[in-house]
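Hi V.,

You were right to ask for the full record rather than a summary. Here it is.
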Amino acid sequence: MRNINRACFFALFFIISCLGKSQVANENKTIKTEAYSAEKRTLFNTNKADCITLPFGYGDISRLKTVDSVLAAIQDQSKLKEIDSLKFDMDIKKDLLLLPEEYNVFLPFSKNVNEKVDRIKIASDFLCYGEYSLYFIGVFNTVRYADPFIEKIYLVSMKNNHLIDMKRIYLNHQGEMGFANYTLFNIDKNYIISLQDYEFTESPFKLKPLSKYQILPSGKFSVYYDHDGSYQNEEEQGTVKNHTKEGKWVEFKSNDYIDLKKYPEFTDSYTYLEAEYKNGLPTGKWNFYKLSQEYNEETGEPIIETRKKGKLIYTETYKDGALKKREFY
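Predicted structure:
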C-alpha cells in the first residue's frame, strides 16, 4: 500500500468535509485548498491518457421504473466491473481517515468501523472537461459485509489542483430489515450527469424523480433542465434560462439544518425557501421559512394545496455562488 502522509490526508479530509447538510446542493460551498502532498506531487492523476470516454454509467436509468428492473441493474456484474475499471487504486489509510457506517452522517466521524480495510480510494481514471478534471472518489463499505463494496462515489471537479466542487453520483446503502437506498448515474457525451434515486422501504418501493446536472464554465455543478422558460413541480418553481436556474425561485424541501429538538412545535423538517440564482449559482440573500403543510392520513404524503410560508428560521447570503453568511433567528 502506498504511504500517504498527513498532508495528503488533510487535503482529502477537506474534500469530504465539504459535504455540508443544506437544502441547497453543493454549489453553495466556499472551497479554498490545494490537493498536494509534502513532496509537492498531486494527489490526483493528471495524465490525460487516463481520461475516460463518454457516455459512462447506467445508460438506461430513465427506463428503470420497476423493482425487478432496478434490482437487476444494481446487481449487474458487467456494470459493476465497468465501474471498477476506473481503477480505484489510490488508498487513504484508515489511521488517517475515519468514516461512519451510515451514509448520511458527516464530520466528525466515529471510530466504530472495520479498521482492517481502507474505506476511501481515488480512481486513477478520470473525466476531462476542458480546463477541468473530474475525479471519482469511492467510499467502500467494510462494516457489515465480508467483501467490501463501493457504497458511494463522489465526482470531484478540480482545476490546477484546486478543488472547485463535488457531488455524490452513486449510492448503494443497504440498511436494516431489507431497507435500502440507491443512486445510479449516467454521464452522457455532452457531460450531462443524470442521477436516479431509489428507495426500498416498507412501502416497499419508491421511485424518485430523475435529476440532471451540468458542469458550468466555473467548474461547479448546477441543476440541468431540458427546457427553458417557466418551471414548476412539487418541490420548486421558477425560471429556467440556458438550462439552469435564473432569478427568483421558491423551493419546498426537507432541510437538515432544521433541528426538530430545537423546534418542538415542528412536525417535520421541511422549509419554504425564497432563493435567487444567477447563471445557475446561488446569489444574494436566501430566506428559509418553516413550511406549513398538511398530510394525507392514508398515504402520509404532503398535501400540496395546503402549503404555507411559516416563520423565518434563518437566512443565507451568497456571492458568486459561494456561501458568505448564515444567520439564524
